[in-house]
Amino acid sequence: MRGLRVAVLGATGLVGQTILKVMEDRELPVEQLVLLATDGKGREISFGGRSIAVESVESMDWRRVDVAFFAASNPASQRWAPEAARHGVTVVDKSSFFRMDPAVPLVVPEVNLESVGDARIIASPNCSTIQLVVALNPLRQHFGIQRVIVSTYQAVSGTGRDAVDALDRESRGYLAEEAVEPSVYPVPIAFNVLPYCDRFLDDDYTGEEWKLTRETQKIFDQPLAVSATAVRVPVFVSHSESVYVELEDNVRLPEVRDVLMNAPGIRVVDDPGTGLVPTPRAAADQDLVWVGRIRRDLHHPRGLHLFVVADNLRKGAATNAVQIVEGLAHRWR
Ligand SMILES: NC(=O)c1ccc[n+]([C@@H]2O[C@H](COP(=O)([O-])OP(=O)(O)OC[C@H]3O[C@@H](n4cnc5c(N)ncnc54)[C@H](OP(=O)(O)O)[C@@H]3O)[C@@H](O)[C@H]2O)c1
Fold first, then answer.
1. How far is the CA of 13 from the centre of ligand 1 (A)?
2. In CATH terms, is domain 129-312 a member of 3.30.360.10?
3. CB neighbours of 90 closer than 8 A, spacing ≥ 6?
4. 260: Cβ below 6 Å to ligand 1?
């Protein structure tokens, strides 16, 4: 791949900052970098040993770049992605705005990179969906899947910078026995568990739960029966998921382990005898999806249980986006 001219919209946010780190870690050949946010506010961010000024997206000339990572908000993606694409920019969008648009591919490189075609706007799925489909895809390919029931344990960084600050502040306040008003979630998140992420919809499921269902179906191009319960927990980084999978055939555990161990993007961490299981803190700052607690259901011969953990800011957001660009290297030979 030749040197790329790259823009990051939302460069001061959690995902934007992680994109910068992942580009450095994976040595994406960045020749020029434009950092964008609502406005510059005189902020500077260091990348590759240089300090780069943050610019306002309002005055961006999109002809300056080949690739743009969008990690800002739905309104920002709606406003700026079509304009960037019109100028020939390949946009990898982390917001949910375009995800269910039939004209926009929704991509996890381990699963469906080929769906990109010649699209200029490419959507990256929700963080909880990405780790789920990476774990499910090899099982789907080798055994077939009839249904999935997933319960998530989602970190506050999935909500953004303000939620990380809120957990920190509330935790300190709680331990100091000082009253701290909840600021991001409707009730305190410190030392608590919120049995919902996102808004409730008319059917009593939340938006996050529907994202897990609909995005998985779009990525697999299959109306797979996925039901979800999305839960917010007081963890800073990494989402965990307890996943029940019904295969099309009886579970053959050694084969299941073998398939998962040889699948792209997965690290099997599963030695209960020595206490080796996937945990959010161990999986933080890693690019792989950790899979463990692999066991058959007690009552259903086709039922399989897994525990799936991944860093929501890296594989759930930044790494997935950077991998998409790596997978499109032919565009910039
Ligand atoms: N956190 C995750 O795990 C995760 C995972 C997958 C997808 N996402 C999605 O990624 C996006 C960013 O999330 P985040 O967690 O990084 O949020 P965040 O920490 O709150 O950061 C948001 C960033 O976007 C910028 N921004 C917001 N509105 C903007 C606008 N209208 N125009 C230009 N810049 C704007 C902010 O800059 P200013 O400070 O200048 O406003 C900031 O740099 C969201 O769409 C989110 O849904 C997040």
1. 5
2. yes
3. 66, 67, 68, 120, 122, 325, 328, 331
4. no
| pLDDT tens for each residue of 221-234 | 999 999 999 999 99
CATH architecture of 4-124+317-332: 3-Layer(aba) Sandwich (3.40)
For ligand 1, say whether the CB of 130 is within 6 Å of any of its atoms: no
Would you name the residues annotated as active-site residues? 127, 239
Segment 32-63, tens digit of pLDDT: 999 999 987 889 999 999 999 999 999 999 99
The rounded Å distance from CA 293 to ligand 1 centre is 33
Residue 272 has pLDDT above 90, yes or no: no
Question: Measured between alpha carbons, how far is 228 from 215 in angstroms, rounded to an integer?
Answer: 12
Cβ atoms of residues 71 and 94 within 8 Å:
yes
Domain ranges of the chain: 4-124+317-332, 129-312
Task: Indicate which residue's Cα is closest to atom 27 of ligand 1.
Answer: 72
Atom of ligand 1 nearest to the CA of 76: 31
Q: What whole-number distance in Å separates Cα of residue 152 and Cα of residue 273?
A: 25
Read off the pTM: 0.97
